[in-house]
Each structure stands twice: as structure tokens, then as C-alpha cells.
Amino acid sequence: MPQLDSSVRAEESAVAEQRLPAAVLWDMDGTLIDTEPQWIGAEMALSRAHGGTWDEGLAMELIGKALTDSAALLRERAGIPLGDEELVEALIGQVVEKVRAGEAAWRPGAVELLAALRAAGVPCVLVTMSYARLADVVVDMLPPGSFAARITGDMVTRGKPHPEPYLTAAERIGVDIADCVAIEDSVPGVASALASGARVLGVPAHVPLQAEPGVRIIETLARVAPTDLLPLTDPDAA
Length: 238
What we know:
Mean pLDDT: 89
CATH topology of the largest domain: Rossmann fold
Strand content: 5-15%
CATH class of the largest domain: Alpha Beta
């Protein structure tokens, strides 16, 4: 077999590295694991318990928002008379219980892609508006080392759609946000990732997403490989 000289090997290695993002930044609820039905159930139960009102439109409006923003809307629109943190903690408590009971399903292809990225040496960061209390439960269900870091809603000052969560994630592991791919399922999440400068891959779950400059929409992560991520999010991709 002919031997490649060192310059050819270096060039091939560089090309291979260019096919992988510096990091993949994962939203959690609705992207990695479908906890949205559990969130909606918790919101409805809390509303009933406090004599409030509820509608499906409000549930869709809350998807992807910072939890304190959701609390304000629940107080205003659903009539739940609790303070922000009290309301958020009540919701998280119910969702944690349901996730621990195995009621939330992994999104198609998400766990497989996460494992493939780890095998390829691409660091992943969880970037979620859920608080650490819930994120820890989800991460503990995955193989150790699946995430290099996690950024949760109770760790940032400004939640999605502000870019702070994604900028914080890239800074935490020392990579350029422009070399990262963010995977999202919600309108506020896509807006946050796009504003941060990341390449954005939208995978809709419960709400529709619109393709726009810097954002590519696909139906599912099933059969998506690590080397697919940069081509999928290439600005010139069809």
C-alpha cells in the first residue's frame, strides 16, 4: 500500500476536522427529550389548583421561554396567584417527578447523535431554560460524560430569546460561538442561538419553525451524523 507523505496526511486531517463543529450546543426540552407534555400538564394542574383559566394557545406561547417570563404570563393569563420563583419551583417539581417516572420520551435520533458526537471528540453543552434541578435529572439518565458543561435558566441573567445562554455556553468550554452548531425546537431558542452567532439547526417538535438566514430546519435528528451538522447549517445549503 502506498504511503502518504506528512503534508498529505496533515491536509486530510485538516479537512476532516473542518467537517465537525467546534461544539454542539443542545436545547433540552423538546429537542433532546420531549418534556413539553409534562410542562403543559403541570401548568394546567397548577392553574386548576388555584382557580385559574387555561387554553392551549398559552401552552404553545410558553414553549422555549425563560421560566420567569413564563411565570409572569401564567400569573397574568392563567390567573395563578403565585410569585415568580414559587410558581417556577411548583412547575419544576411536577415535571421532575414525571421525568423520573419515565413519562418523557427522548426525541428521535437525539441520544444517538449525542453518543456519536462524544465518540468523534466533539464537546456538547446543554443550554436549557429549565433549572439545574430538572437538567440534572435528565443528564443523569444519559451516559456519563455526554455533556462537557450545562447552562441552565437559573445560571443566567437573561434567558432565551436573549443570546446570553448560548454565549455563556461557548465561553464555558473555550470555543468560538461562530464555530458551534446549536440545536433548537422553539422560536425563542432559535432566536437566542441565532443572535449569539451560532449556526442553528431547528428541529420542530410542538411549534412550527421558519427557515431564515442562519437557520436550517429539518424534521428529525434520526440518521443525522456529526459530519452532517456543518453541511446542514452551511449558509449556502439548499
